[in-house]
Amino acid sequence: MTDHLTMDSIARLVPQGSRVLDLGCGDGAMLDYLQRERGCSGYGIEIADDNVLACVKRGVNVIQLNLDEGLPMFDDASFDVVLQIDTLQHLHNTETMLVETARVGRIGIVAFPNFAHWPNRLSIARGRMPVTKRLPYQWYDTPNIRVGTYKDFEVLATKSRLTILDAYGLQEGREVRFLPNARAGTAVFKFERG
Amino acid sequence: MSLVAVAQSMQFSEPLALQCGASIRAYSLAYETYGRLNADRNNAVLICHALNASHHVAGSYEGLAQSEGWWDTMIGPGKPLDTDRFFVIGVNNLGSCFGSTGPMHVNPDTGKVYGADFPVVTVEDWVNAQARLLDGLGIQTLAAVMGGSLGGMQALSWTLQYPDRVRHAVVVASAPNLTAENIAFNEVARRAIVTDPDFHGGHFYEHGVVPKRGLRIARMIGHITYLSDDVMNEKFGRQLREGLDLRYTTQDIEFQIESYLRYQGDKFSEYFDANTYLLITRALDYFDPALRHNGNLAKALSVAKAKFLLVSFSTDWRFAPKRSREMVKALLDNRRDVSYAEIDAPHGHDAFLLEDPRYMGVVRSYFDRVGKEVGR
User: Fold this and answer.
1) Residue B321 to residues A61, B151, B156, B326: CA-CA distances in angstroms?
2) What is the pLDDT of residues A102-150, one digit of tens each?
3) CA of A36, closest CA in chain B: separation in Å?
């Protein structure tokens, strides 16, 4: 999902020169982009060996940790921005990690596949789990251990006492601000502690 | 194309003041170099050794079979630390028994062999001596300093003692200090040596004996802690050395693991010096850069300017991942550039000397970046 337009859209939420912690940073493309285009610095967290290697190759700082263990290594408000780009759906402790994200970062930014996007609804209405560009896996063979919707996240954010600073959908790299829960494959939230 | 290693030695006549208050008046350091120092003299990488290793890091000695350096899997032409790009230096530490001035040499002040009178040396003292070697080689700044275990402690200490002389530090399977359990293992090993009747208070050379029994036991206990439970079970399990039937003996070898440990102990006692073992394990015990900062490691590391790569291994219980994470956290608190790989390997502490492709890949990629920085 880290195509150029999507990356660009999320990067615009990150203030120039921020110190960034990217949870589940993948191959480090986002951090690399933020370092080059927006003068940011920071670290990625990854569990997968091949992604750690890819980050080192790029020259992106990466720390190999399991996010299911929380973020005990990081102090309160020690980063300007904490990112969770396509990470939430892989975590067992989603709620804890959301609170941790807001604890460690002055701003949290979360992006994840929106299960309420209309093609998904259509597929469910036909009685089948969706297999789309955004959710390309069969139900029996998916790395996503949970799926949620744009609206679901609003509810969880409120429950976790987060203040939503900005929220929108992303579809084909374009921002969707009208009916994002139905019209966007990706949900994006920018928040801080309430 | 295999690398030919040539052992060299540098003499120092200016006294080296040691942390313990004593000084060494004249000494020599054994070292080897691989690759070429570039015109800008900025592609040098220093390798620091651990307990029982030496300056012979890579390559083989001409005409000598099975004489590969202890980190030959890591260092050489086309290897993760590529000697076609970097000028790599291996150095033997003071107090060791592989060529640098140590307890078996003559003290110029007394004309007698040092033995137990060799001054207590620390990680910091070693780093100071290594810095003088670099001065002698005309190297102001290291592209990187690298070490595993006790060698990693030296690499870390370099970034604190000479922050302007190190661009990168690669710290593998190491710790910011030893835990009580770790000191305890060292103490068992030391007691084994010291209580060997052949030790003679550390002056065994003049009696023409070697406290081999103590050295054997020291090595056996060390070996146990370098392996993981899993790898030991996989390698030896409950296998008997001979046949399938128990022999009901309390003193002879029954299990394969006993045979293995005895073999390792015997081998070690043939080449390692007892006083060196005491000195090096003490240096391990003493290393604690946070001590002067009320145990605050972040404060201790605040002077470091280098960029860091840390690597640990999941089954290493002697230098556990947890200890590497402490260093990572202290570096994060200081906003240093740091990457950290925690390799899920079954081999315990020994993993840092083995050829795990993930480990090798991360180090290779890291040095690739370092090489680009220094224009190689």
Assistant:
1) 18, 16, 16, 9
2) 999 999 999 999 999 999 999 999 999 999 989 999 999 999 988 999 9
3) 16
Which residues of B have a CB under 8 Å from any CB of A?
Answer: 309, 325, 328-329, 332-333, 335, 337-344, 358, 361-362, 365-366, 368-369
Residue with tokens 């000028």: B87
Q: Which residue of A has its CA nearest to B313?
A: A64
ipTM above 0.90, yes or no: yes
Asked if A74 is an interface residue toward chain B (Cβ–Cβ < 8 A), one would say yes
Low-confidence ranges of chain B (pLDDT < 70): 1, 376
Q: Which long-range CB contacts under 8 A does A162-167 form with residues at least 24 apart?
A: A162/A98, A162/A102, A162/A108, A162/A191, A162/A192, A162/A193, A162/A194, A163/A191, A163/A192, A163/A193, A163/A194, A164/A189, A164/A190, A164/A191, A165/A107, A165/A190, A165/A191, A165/A192, A166/A13, A166/A190
CB nearest B339 (choices: A19, A56, A73): A56
Q: Give the Cα separation of B276 and B93 in Å (integer).
A: 10
pLDDT at B258: 97
Say whether residue A142 is in contact with chain B using an 8 A CB cutoff.
no
B332 by DSSP, 3-state: which? helix
Length of chain B, please?
Answer: 376
Nearest to B141 by CA among B359, B337, B305: B305
Q: Write down the pLDDT at residue B376.
A: 63
How distant is the Cα of A41 from the closest Cα of chain B, in angstroms? 9
The string of pLDDT tens digits covering residues B35-93 is: 999 999 999 999 999 999 999 999 999 999 999 999 999 999 999 999 999 999 999 99
